[in-house]
User: Fold this.
Amino acid sequence: MLNTISSLYKKKIRPYSKLIQAICIPLLALVIPISIGNKQSFCGYVMIIMSSFWLLETIPMAATSLIPILLFPIFGIMTSRDVASVYIQDILMLFLAVIVLTQSIKSSGLNERLSLKIILLFGSNPNFLLLGIMCITWFLSIWISNNASVCMMMFPITVEIAKYLIEINEAVTTEIKRCRQLVTFGIENSVEKIDFAEGQEPSRESLFEESSEVEHNNEYSKESLKILKAFCLSVSFSSTIGGSGSLIASPPNILLKGFLDENFPNNNINFLSYFLYSLPFTFTMLIFAWALLCILYIPRGFSRKAIHSEKIIEKEPLKRAIKRKYSECGSLNWEQKSIGFFFIILIFLWFTRDIYWIKGWSYFFPKGFVTDTTPAMLILLLVTIWPKENIFAGKEYKNLIDWKIINQSFPWNILLFAGGSFALSKGFEKSKLSNSIGSLLQRLMPAQKELALGLIVVLSEIGTEFTCNFSMSSIFLPIVNSLSQKNEIDPLYLLMHTIMAINFSFMLPIATPANSIVFASGHVKTKDMLISGGILKIVGILVIFLFSSTWYQFLHNNSLLLLNKEKNPNSTLTDFF
Assistant:
């Protein structure tokens, strides 16, 4: 009977499952706006449809992102003109500029040189290579925006390193089998039983011929695809974690500082005091995230293979093969020097735009007018003008980048995908659904310090997946402040950890632009983010409780309760801005 039902499902229902979802989800969710009938319910209806379609991939995700353009005007939430204007944002222009620069790096061969160098520094063991990349991205995200650090690390470096690592290890495996006279596989299929015949090791020619074939075919085993997922997710997770590392690292952190200065003018929270607390906190989260990715996505055999291939007969054939490949790259040519120079200039401009305690170069422009996109666009225009070859040596003038190649390789769907998430967040604001949720939360808050923190953290981590971090912070900060005043709880105790929970947007591609950029690589699916991000969120809750009861008590115990409160502690953030 069960076999019959299963067979019937596979033959008659499964082929039409996407169509069934596309019809049933909107019809079932229609109960909410019909029964309530206000703008908030209609916005919630749109959110349910879009979230379900994104999670189940019922229709192409870029097509799902267009739903607000259709439904928001129909439901009277936003006009068509207002909705459409949301789909082109500053961050998307930043993404466009970095993709163009990345393509230039790739076409010049500089990405291969960078990948080989980093592999040589951290070793070919994927676990430690992953840790190295995560540490670099985490450190960058403390000082520059998450989006800039993801764009910097994702495509020009991390993806190429992962692919190159996979190709080398697959080539080494093939060459080991070819060179081995006798190979015995036990039940565990352990690579530690593989040895080279005396005097033999993988040849440079066969090693990298095999590597190029893998890249050409663009076909990877399930094991290799897991490696790609781990490296892509590592950039997203480490940049998000690093975003909690300093007061300038993310908009919610800046918002927190502004809120504290407005409501507690004599507070002792400055760049250094916040950094002393957040640095060990975020580093602990980084280690947990690294361990999680290693457990979920790095196959044990892959790691053992990488370790063993470097230690066979103490000749380190893999490492020496990589060194030979790196030496074959030769000296930097004009094209590589040019694109490398522009890349370094862009990083420098990102770092020096606005330093918290020192006025950066943005000081010379109207406040708030210049963002990370400005220097990115400057470099983009420069690389379209700069010559590909040295014209001073009599070479023919050609542009450093070929825009036809950019047009073919650019993931245009990311513009729609990110625009849809921005439109959904704007709909929350315009329909006042966010305010309704905030009022409900204020009535549910318990008076006990630990219970209040637990509820706030859990709700913050859930809500931040569906609306932008800035909006969540704007909603929660005045509510949390009011709750702390009412129940005589240290405001900083709740406010600081609320912001950290809001920053932890790990689960959905729509949660942050950084997640969207990683998702656009095509190597990560929604379910990958849901599983790994969900586990990491649970870990984040535990780490927040650990640090709030230990390190926080040492640094900031009841610090704001000792200050004179302002007459209007419940003021909203609108007044501040």
Remarks:
- Confidence is low (pLDDT under 50) at residues 181-217, 306-315, 562-577.
